[in-house]
Amino acid sequence: MKTVAAFLLVLCYLAGSHAWNCREGPRLSSITQIDAGLGKVVAVNRFNQAFVLIGTRWYRLSSVSLKHISVGPAGMWGASNTNRVYKSVAGNMLQSSGLSLQQVDAGGDGQVVGVSVGGSNTLCLRESFALAYKGVGSLSWSSLGRAMRYYSCSPNNGCWGVDTSFRVYFTQRIVPSNCGTSGWLYVAGQSMTMIEVGTDGSVFGVNRSGQVFQRIGISIRLPQGSAWRSVPMCMSIRHVSYDLGRLWAVTTSGLLMQCTH
Ligand SMILES: *[C@@H]1O[C@H](CO)[C@@H](O)[C@H](O)[C@H]1NC(C)=O
């Protein structure tokens, strides 16, 4: 399977795309999820092992089992395979008590957002709590009032979420100090399994067939953008993340692609 996937990668280079140039990224066996933010890149694999990218090599972050990891203005946060929330403190992933979450995102304007188990609720940790948390005691989360299965925030272009029916929602702003939102807008056009918004506000999503899309037409007047533009990948994609001009795409077969414009 791995050999076949590697061969497909070669075909990918040949096919190319007029907009994005993709090549194989630093290899992390059975990678399942990646997050890039503030110049850092972190990932987890099928065995719930967490890694950080240094140069062209992946280094094990901690011995804690994580199924999702996120790095951004709010620090480095993760969700374990038993849905416990962890924060990186002095180089160690420390467990918090409080709610069980299946996904957390640290990409917002200081706040952390999370998805409860099964996507039944969406939660937000105020900036003051998120930044000050030293790994001791319980975290007090606020409800965001709209159920989502995946959620991602940016300091620059609000938050994007996908509900349990794969519908896409956007809120222009979450107030970091109190987790208030400016209301939710349904974004028609594509059903997505996940969406990530980068620190600079760029938005990418993956649909249920593993196709990647970029949101285009984002402006101050139209913060939700105007359309989805396909980013051809020639392999089925499971997860994407974008930071500082690099689009990272994890294939369903466990390979990593790195694309530049
Ligand atoms: C995903 O996007 C591709 C390309 O636009 C489209 O052909 C396919 O039907 C989409 N899949 C779903 C499940 O919407």
Question: Which keywords apply here?
Answer:
mainly beta; globular; binds 2-acetamido-2-deoxy-beta-D-glucopyranose; 24 strands
Question: How is this structure best described in words?
Answer:
With about 260 residues, this protein is mainly beta. It has helices at about 1-15, 125-130, and strands spanning about 20-25, 30-35, 40-45, 50-55, 55-60, 65-70, 75-80, 85-90, 90-95, 100-105, 110-115, 120-125, 140-145, 150-155, 160, 170, 185, 190-195, 205, 210-215, 225-230, 235-245, 245-250, 255-260. It contains two helices and 24 strands. The strands form six sheets. The protein has a four-stranded antiparallel sheet with strand order 1-24-23-22, covered by helices on one side. A four-stranded antiparallel sheet has the order 2-3-4-5, with no helix packed on it. A hairpin with a 4-residue loop joins β19 (about 205) and β20 (about 210-215). The longest helix has 14 residues, at about 1-15. The chain starts with a helix and ends with a strand. The model has no long low-confidence stretch (mean pLDDT about 90). Bound molecules: 2-acetamido-2-deoxy-beta-D-glucopyranose (NAG). 2-acetamido-2-deoxy-beta-D-glucopyranose (NAG) binds next to loops. 2-acetamido-2-deoxy-beta-D-glucopyranose binds near residues 191, 208, 209, 211 and 230.
What can be said about the biggest beta sheet? 4 strands, antiparallel
Mean pLDDT: 92
Terminal Cα span: 29 Å
The secondary-structure class comes to mainly beta
Low-pLDDT runs: none
What ligand species are in this complex?
A: 2-acetamido-2-deoxy-beta-D-glucopyranose
Number of strands: 24
- Gyration radius from CA atoms, angstroms: 17 Å
